[in-house]
Design a protein that fits this description.
The protein is α/β, with parallel strands linked by helices and 332 residues long. It folds into two domains: 201 residues, Collagenase (Catalytic Domain) (3-Layer(aba) Sandwich), CATH 3.40.390.10; 107 residues, Sandwich (Immunoglobulin-like). The chain is built from three helices and 16 strands. Strand 15 and strand 16 form a beta hairpin. The termini are far apart.
Length: 332
């Protein structure tokens, strides 16, 4: 989003890094961008900057709110020593980033100046009145997440890349002052002139470098491992089985195919960050009576970074119009 600035007769020390986003989905930044020393969110004693996030009106938007949280964690939080936490409904006294879901141009305050400010960030999830092009089923999620990544860049203290005095962008540049963290970056997520709108919601190499200059580089955590095993239950009459399992925010799928020649199969997924990871499982199994029976299961696990988990698939009596419910249980 763009930012509405109330200009003060002082020198700006807010930051320029970033990328561009197409103006049809974002708005002018509304922050009080003064030169006060308090624009940067402070680090805790452990070197991590902790920023609470809350939603002014989350009811009915649980899926979209989850998209935003996952995108922000996977970009800014993964790259720098910044932890966004809570992500709960706002109260009257909530601090940090307060997000209003509204059908207008998305926008955000800049840096710590927005701490506790009611509706300090506004995000559009419906696009019915503004930017209707984002309503398309193949665009809506990417619009929501890429805009959110841009707006959280502002919330961390970043201004628009095209506003630099050395910007090659001619159509959008406002040429405001700022602290230059890196060389000019045409591919920044904060640059309106980026040929890829919002850089598809991904940080550029220089975005990562810039945010690490400000908040420090996050130490690379060892990969966690989520291993799932399926065993053909021949004693129960199973002859052949195909299972598809989807895991994690990206919905990565793995397939299990078992028969008399291959009665056991394991698949695994890796993950970097701690948090809640969800899965869905679909099965189709042939039995000795010649009938195929279908199953389905879904659930979530809270995983710790760097830890390995080992589980196995199991069928239980169905609670719906299918043959089985599928669950995960601790592997033997």
């Amino acid at each position: 989003m763009t930012i509405r600035l109330r200009w003060f007769a002082v020198l700006f020390f807010l930051l320029l890094i970033g990328n561009s986003i197409e103006s049809y989905a974002q708005s002018d930044m509304r922050a009080d961008a003064s030169s006060g020393a308090g624009w940067q969110w402070p680090a805790s004693s452990d070197g991590i900057t902790y920023i609470p996030v809350c939603w002014e009106n989350p009811i009915g938007w649980e899926t979209e709110s989850g998209w935003v949280k996952a995108a922000v964690i996977d970009t800014w939080q993964r790259s720098a020593k910044v932890n966004f936490y809570n992500w709960t409904p706002c109260t009257r006294t909530s601090k940090g980033i307060r997000i209003l879901i509204t059908d207008t141009r998305s926008n955000s305050g800049v840096g710590r100046n927005m701490d506790g400010r009611k509706s300090g960030m506004e995000l559009n999830f419906s696009f019915k009145n503004f930017s209707p092009v984002c309503q398309a089923s193949n665009k809506r999620q990417s619009c929501i997440t890429s805009i959110a990544v841009h707006e959280f860049g502002h919330a961390l203290g970043l201004m628009h890349e095209q506003d630099r005095t050395d910007s090659s962008c001619k159509s959008e540049a406002a040429k405001s002052g700022g602290w230059l963290l890196t060389a000019y970056d045409p591919y920044s997520v904060m640059n309106y002139c980026n040929p890829r709108w919002n850089n598809d919601g991904q940080l550029s190499t220089l975005d990562v470098k810039g945010i690490q200059i400000l908040y420090g580089a996050r130490a690379e955590a060892p990969l966690g491992r989520f291993r799932v095993t399926d065993v053909l239950n021949t004693a129960g009459g199973q002859k052949w089985e195909r299972i598809v399992m989807e895991f994690g925010a990206g919905g990565t799928r793995r397939e299990f195919v078992l028969d008399s020649s291959k009665k056991t199969q394991s698949n695994y997924w890796t993950f970097k960050l701690p948090g809640r990871y969800c899965y869905k499982i679909w099965s189709n199994t042939l039995y000795t009576d010649g009938l195929y029976r279908d199953g389905y299961g879904e659930g979530c696990y809270t995983l710790q970074a760097g830890k390995s988990y080992s589980l196995s698939l199991a069928f239980t009596k169905s609670t719906a119009k299918r043959s089985f419910d599928i669950i995960l249980q601790a592997a033997n």
